[in-house]
Design a protein that fits this description.
The complex is a heterodimer of chains A (385) and B (523).
Chain A (H helix, E strand, L loop, with lengths): L16 H13 L7 H4 L1 E8 L5 H11 L6 E5 L2 E6 L3 H34 L6 H32 L14 H30 L2 E9 L1 H30 L2 H25 L7 H25 L5 H33 L2 H40 L1
Antiparallel strand pairs in A: 1-3, 1-4, 2-3
Chain B lengths: L3 H6 L1 H20 L5 H4 L1 E8 L5 H17 L6 E5 L3 E6 L4 H12 L4 E5 L2 E5 L9 E2 L3 E3 L2 E9 L2 H10 L9 E4 L5 E6 L10 H12 L7 E5 L3 H13 L6 E5 L4 H9 L3 E5 L1 H4 L2 E6 L2 E6 L5 E3 L15 E7 L9 H16 L8 E3 L3 E3 L1 H30 L5 H22 L4 H27 L7 H27 L8 H30 L1
Parallel strand pairs in B: 10-11, 10-12, 12-13
Antiparallel strand pairs in B: 1-3, 1-18, 1-19, 2-3, 4-5, 4-9, 6-8, 7-8, 8-17, 9-16, 14-15
Classes of the chains: A alpha+beta (385), B alpha+beta (523).
Chain lengths: 385, 523
């Protein structure tokens, strides 16, 4: 089979319109990306079942049993994956316990001040500064205890549906309240899990399940970390690429290639509903890797080799590069299909991202990056002539 | 056709084979660790009461690891995430085991300070947050350390009474002193270090007396009389003691007898059954430390505090002994003050923790995931190799491609499974490595088979190919660095580990071997 060398056309520069158009379309779709429960918080449950209910039936039955569940269900053979929204009282409760701890820290430091000043006062009974310090520390203690008490009372009301009966506690003892807050939170978590799993089991009976709850705070933290990691990786790679080429235009072409691939991959995720999860970070970094692979191959062959014309070398590089990308597409398509068939979200998220990124890379590298490098090479050749 | 022997003689191919053999041996010996996604288990997210810095985070994860291992939880992994989260992973999946783990993580130890067989001070007497350590100060040849703390008003009166007249007596500091416990020690293990057997026994009893909660020490030698005495002690004291700490070198019949009588028996090695002593005079010694009963230090009471005066402010001080090497005295003093502070606080964690809702993976689902992962890997390799063979129309290529790809996978699985844990992300990374690995093989194949035309030496052609391959690998490793060093996205770090190891392996071992096979065949 003979392919025509697309770079021999006079208008090869016009090819660059295609990746740029892809880029613009992608920017529109990026805001539509759906985060999965690992980033926005939620509970995902996987289970094996004999149930023959359809996905729609399971979804509506769980929504009926667990108020506010917003269940999303997927099924592959005997495996069912269910994601539901985490109960806000339960997920907020963790930060409430944290604030009770901070009241306790205040209480402790006031107690320490009180003890230290009392101890000094016994040797110096008329010292008014010490007396004032004692009064201040006592007031601080009372304030901390009051704050703790009202926060704890609020938490117990919030968690009431998930607690076994009424909780009685000593509202003047900081340690007792701290322990109450901790154990109330712990038993609410356990009861909530039993409630959710029980509701799900009543819809789809199962003996083996996996339960994975993520609080929205942790999810948000993961999202911000993901962004930092991707940006850091991108910047490091860009610096390395500039160090290798030491000329701005080819280096820019390579960096542009990687950036474009990531943006188009993100856009495709938004357009095709591939969820973004913590695992996607691996896929996004891999896209940088693959983008650089082909971009470097093309740039090195066009700029640093001498056999044949630069246009011929570009076309030869394209043959090698397209083979490479297709191989990678085959590997990730198999992972993607298997993940989809067997419902393994981590694989699905990683392979989905890489797959769209690789397809984008075909356009970016051979229609965007290479014309850019060729254009630069032709100008340079013309100048040297 | 080149003979098989000439392939094996090539240095590059030989290296690959040797690395694989060594790793296979290590795999068989140590076993490969799989994550809970594959074997089932539980992950407990822990939130800290407040964000901490890196040092405190390290101290916390170490303390948690220590706790779980002290309580005999095996294969527990503790990982800090960012500045305010920790993840604890245990292989167990039943709710009892999970609850046990959570209570161990959050457990607070109990400090007891015992003077003259009386509980003079306990952990709850110490004002929270009042325990302070000072930087060790140089004094003559060595370093002095000081730990200061406050005790509550009510405790101060009790303490003053308990230590009245006990000048220069030891304050035995226990952390989690065992209850209802008897110690059965082989008399051959008693004494030593210049201390007679009877002095050793007296010193032990002095430290372990505490009213009706005394820990009794029974010395047993191998005579039948001694063993039958021990037997009758066991029969007579079923109500008083439930737990026994026993020398492992006691007669087996005696150890069996303890178990038959429903005692909970913990056997300890000779080293652990031997306390450290402080020699006060020629024939008098006291116990300094004995970790199996929680005795961690025995400072002596200064005469200034044993005269009945009530105080809320105390300090424990000491100096690094001159027997410690001069250069290590500062650190010795520092560690000593840290140990004392930790004992006083009941072994409290550096920051309070809040255990969250555990993630559980059932073992059945884990096995299924592992099976599907393996299947996916095999299918991917088959399809990728088939594509390459069709693309270059050379069936022989299937041999080196399969060989190098499988070797690469095997080496990555071994490397990660031996040092770390193979989790879902690591496996996804392995599939990615199949992709990049084959990419590099394509570049080599292209340069050797397709573009060789003009150039004569396969060496210079390979040089061209390897320039690009090295560059790609270096850039892939750079791209993965931020994730590899991330302290927060621990569930995905495996991906970067796989790809980085894969890239390194590729350029150093497998791709040279691949090119060696190819150039031998087609030269």
């Amino acid at each position: 089979m003979m392919l025509r060398n697309i770079y021999e056309s006079k208008n090869y520069k016009a090819l660059m319109i295609i990746p740029i158009a892809l880029l613009l379309i992608s920017l529109y779709f990026i805001p539509k990306i759906q985060s999965d429960s690992s980033l926005k918080g939620g509970i995902s449950v996987q289970l094996q079942t004999n149930s023959t209910l359809s996905v729609q039936q399971i979804t509506s039955m769980i929504n009926a049993k667990v108020p506010g569940a917003q269940a999303s269900v997927s099924k592959s053979g005997s495996l069912v994956g269910i994601t539901i929204a985490i109960n806000t009282s339960v997920s907020k409760s963790e930060s409430v316990v944290q604030s009770i701890y901070s009241y306790d820290a205040n209480y402790s430091s006031d107690t320490l001040n009180l003890t230290a000043n009392q101890s000094r006062l016994s040797g110096d009974p008329n010292n008014s500064t010490l007396k004032a310090n004692i009064a201040k520390a006592t007031a601080g203690q009372q304030k901390a205890i009051a704050g703790m008490n009202s926060t704890l009372a609020g938490q117990l009301i919030m968690l009431k549906p998930f607690l076994n009966g009424t909780v009685v506690y000593n509202s003047t003892n900081a340690t007792a309240m701290l322990n109450t807050a901790n154990s109330a939170y712990g038993s609410a978590l356990a009861n909530y899990e039993n409630y959710v799993v029980g509701a799900i089991k009543s819809v789809v009976p199962t003996n083996s399940y996996s339960y994975n709850p993520i609080t929205p705070t942790l999810g948000a933290f993961f999202l911000s970390q993901m962004q930092t990691i991707i940006i850091a990786a991108f910047v490091l790679v860009a610096i390395a690429v500039f160090a290798v080429f030491r000329t701005p235009i080819p280096a820019f072409a390579v960096v542009f290639g990687a950036a474009n691939d990531i943006i188009v991959a993100l856009g495709a995720m938004g357009a095709f509903g591939i969820p973004l999860g913590v695992a996607s970070v691996g896929g996004l970094l891999m896209i940088i890797g693959y983008a650089i692979d082909t971009d470097m191959l093309a740039s090195i062959r066009v700029l640093k080799r001498s056999e044949g014309s630069s246009t011929e070398r570009a076309f030869e590089a394209m043959k090698t590069g397209v083979t490479m990308t297709i191989t990678a597409i085959i590997a990730f398509a198999i992972l993607f299909i298997m993940a989809w068939l067997a419902y393994i979200p981590t694989y699905f998220e990683i392979s989905g991202v890489v797959l769209v990124g690789l397809i984008a890379d075909l356009a970016t590298t051979w229609l965007g990056n290479v014309p850019m490098v060729l254009w630069y090479k032709h100008k340079k050749e013309a100048r040297n002539r | 056709m080149t003979s098989l022997a000439s392939y094996v003689k090539d240095r590059r191919i030989l290296t690959l084979i040797l690395v694989a053999i060594v790793l296979a041996g290590l795999d068989l010996h140590f076993g490969i660790h799989f994550g809970i996604e594959f074997v089932g288990g539980t992950q407990i997210p822990v939130t800290l009461a407040h964000p901490v810095n890196v040092t405190a985070m390290t101290a916390l994860t170490q303390a948690l690891e220590q706790r779980t291992s002290t309580f005999g939880l095996k294969q527990t992994i503790v990982e800090g995430i960012g500045d305010s989260h920790v993840i604890v992973q245990v292989p167990a999946a039943t709710s009892t085991e999970i609850n046990q783990t959570i209570s161990i993580l959050a457990s607070q130890g109990r400090f007891d300070g015992i003077v003259n067989g009386r509980d003079a001070i306990t952990g709850s007497d110490i004002v929270k947050g009042s325990i302070g350590t000072e930087t060790p100060q140089l004094n003559n040849q060595t370093y002095d350390w000081i730990v200061t703390f406050f005790i509550s008003q009510s405790a101060s009166k009790h303490f003053a009474g308990a230590v009245l007249g006990a000048a220069n007596k030891p304050l035995y500091m226990f952390l989690d002193r065992p209850q209802q416990t008897a110690i059965f020690i082989n008399s051959s293990n008693l004494g030593g270090q210049g201390i007679s057997k009877s002095a050793a026994l007296t010193a032990m009893q002095d430290a372990l007396t505490l009213g009706n909660q005394s820990i009794v020490v029974v010395s047993v030698d191998n005579t039948s009389q001694s063993i039958s005495n021990a037997d009758s002690f066991l029969l007579a004291n079923k109500k008083n003691y439930k737990n026994i700490i026993a020398s492992a070198n006691l007669p087996q019949s005696l150890l069996d007898f303890m178990q038959q009588n429903n005692y909970t028996v913990k056997t300890e090695s000779v080293a652990d059954m031997t306390p450290t002593y402080i020699q006060l005079s020629f024939n008098q010694s006291i116990l300094e430390t004995w970790p199996i009963v929680g005795l961690l230090s025995s400072p002596t009471l200064s005469p200034a505090i044993t005269n009945g005066n009530v105080s809320q402010n105390y300090q424990i001080s000491g100096a690094a002994p001159l027997t410690v090497q001069k250069g290590n005295r500062y650190n010795y003093a520092l560690n000593q003050s840290k140990t004392i502070a930790s004992v006083l606080s009941g072994g409290a964690l550096p920051v309070s923790i809040i255990a969250g809702a555990p993630t559980t993976v059932s073992a059945t689902l884990g096995k299924r995931t592992l099976y599907i992962s393996g299947l996916t890997g095999i299918i991917a390799i088959i399809f990728v190799s088939a594509f390459i063979v069709i693309r270059y129309r050379k069936p022989f290529l299937i041999v080196p491609i399969l060989l190098t790809t499988l070797m690469e996978l095997f080496i990555i699985i071994s490397a990660i499974g031996l040092i770390g844990t193979i989790d879902l992300a690591a496996v996804a990374g392995m599939i990615a490595v199949v992709g990049t690995g084959v990419d590099a093989q394509i570049i080599i194949t292209d340069e050797l088979l397709v573009r060789k035309g003009g150039e004569t030496s396969s060496k210079s052609v390979l040089g061209n190919a390897f320039y690009i391959i090295w560059m790609d690998a270096a850039l892939l490793i750079i791209a993965m660095m931020p994730l590899f060093f991330s302290t927060s996205l621990t569930s995905v770090i495996g991906f970067s580990e796989s790809t980085i190891i894969g890239a390194l392996l590729g350029i150093l071992i497998t791709r040279p071997a691949y090119s060696a096979i190819l150039s031998k065949r087609y030269d």
